Amino acid sequence: SSIPLQHGAHRLGKRTDAEMQKWREHGLGQFIHWGVYAIAGGHWQGKYYPGAAEWIRSWEEMPKDAYDNLYKEFNPTDFDAKQWAKQAKYMGAKYMIITTKHHDGFCIWPSKYTDYTIKNTPYKKDLLREIVDAYDKEGIDVYLYFSIIDWHEKGYRSAIPETAEEKVAYEEFKQFTRNQLIELLTDYPTAKGLWFDGTWDKAWIEQVQFADDLEKEMRAMRPGLIIGSRFRADENGKRHFDSNGDLMGDYEQGWERDLPNSIADVNGNDWDCVMTIPENQWGYHSEWRGYVKTSFDLIDMLVRSVSMDGNFVLNFGPDGKGNIRPEETKLAKEIGDWMKINSEAIYGCSYVNLKKQGWGYFTRKDNKIYLTVFNRPINNMLNLEIAKGGVKPVKAYFLSDKKGVDIVNAGRNKQNSSLYNLVIPADFISGQPFVIVLEISQSDDDKDTYQ
Ligand code: H79
């Protein structure tokens, strides 16, 4: 049963247009968090801030006034957009998301609606323009991250405005927000979509009609524009999914530093996972503490995302001078090295309805199923179980060198599924997760049933 909603989902089911299909096929993306918080690098006057570096302004030890003047020192003389884009290209990213404005309100483009922008730093030049141009040139689609929270803008409120004066100020803030979004879409016409954040404030959740109108306005301005589920709430304050449980926006945007456990968790929707390299640092923090993910971990998350029909977006936090830190450069290289050999199992691939196996993940494109092996069984046998009436294995081989892999037919089980073992040659050695391609045809059988 469904209740009538004025401001719920505008569409049921996935988008079917070419722009969204392209997004869906990306598989791997890059996130970049860059702003004046990169100057502080998670420290103030030598003191370590244990939170996420881009949140340092909210720290009690951080004088707000000092933070709001950091921009006067923002001069990223080492910044080279072409180099960033080349690195992302090598890693295998097909799209990137750049923070145009984080919660602190600092704009990396020269917005004409505030003075708190790159234009008034010693650097002066439009960072967003350089980034968009460089990534466009590499053929990497650009998406604009935009925070609705804006700690710098005077009319901004987190709580619902109460006084008449506050209400007027908040109305101005809403217009300011709209102006900036229209400005971004007008001035950066190649950007493919918007990635919203900071939309959980009570004040914003209440702006149901305004946000819905604004979303429609942005979409009308730019046919094909892609916006996730984090922009607006429905009239009952429901976010991401409306009061009927239907996804609002083009893809589910709730997987932040988290992955679905199984395909059941994503309900047939498009989704992205945005992931940090340390546990929770997006902007540059000069002192990473705690566990730092390895390229093995990240490739696992990438393949796992694609195996459940999602995109995996890995975050980078360049420093205040514009350098991507060596740890991140190394990981980008390692992921890129892996992608050089194995990206066929990623791009354009989707979920396969086969029983999950412990050795790794299935992905599929056309008549090829890719088995990406992370946990090689001691007996070198990869188990495969295909339900009755399912696809039929034709041949198997390594993606890297096309060397054949034997398929042993292992009969049927109680549920009448066909069982197979793919046999990894004992002398095959790999220091990396590896991919076996299984070519399939549609089943013609169901004759040789379980006896
Ligand atoms: O930009 C990165 C983070 O800075 C930002 N999103 C990523 C992409 C982010 N901001 N906050 N969070 C992530 C965590 C959110 C915490 C919340 Fe809450 C808990 C939001 C609502 C409940 C903290 C407590 C903020 C408001 C109340």
From TrEMBL:
InterPro entries reported for this sequence: FUC_metazoa-typ (IPR016286), GH (IPR017853), Glyco_hydro_29 (IPR000933), Glyco_hydro_29_N (IPR057739), Glyco_hydro_b (IPR013780)
Domain Glycoside hydrolase family 29 N-terminal residues, every copy: 18-344
Keywords, sorted A to Z: Glycosidase, Hydrolase, Signal
Leading EC class: hydrolase
EC assignment: 3.2.1.51
GO CC aspect terms: lysosome
Matching SMART domains: Alpha_L_fucos
GO BP term, example: fucose metabolic process
Database matches in Pfam families: Alpha_L_fucos
GO-annotated molecular function: alpha-L-fucosidase activity
Family per record: Belongs to the glycosyl hydrolase 29 family.
Function: Alpha-L-fucosidase is responsible for hydrolyzing the alpha-1,6-linked fucose joined to the reducing-end N-acetylglucosamine of the carbohydrate moieties of glycoproteins.
PANTHER family (alphabetical): ALPHA-L-FUCOSIDASE, ALPHA-L-FUCOSIDASE-RELATED
Protein name stated in the entry: alpha-L-fucosidase
Annotated organism of origin: Dysgonomonas alginatilytica
Lineage: Bacteria, Pseudomonadati, Bacteroidota, Bacteroidia, Bacteroidales
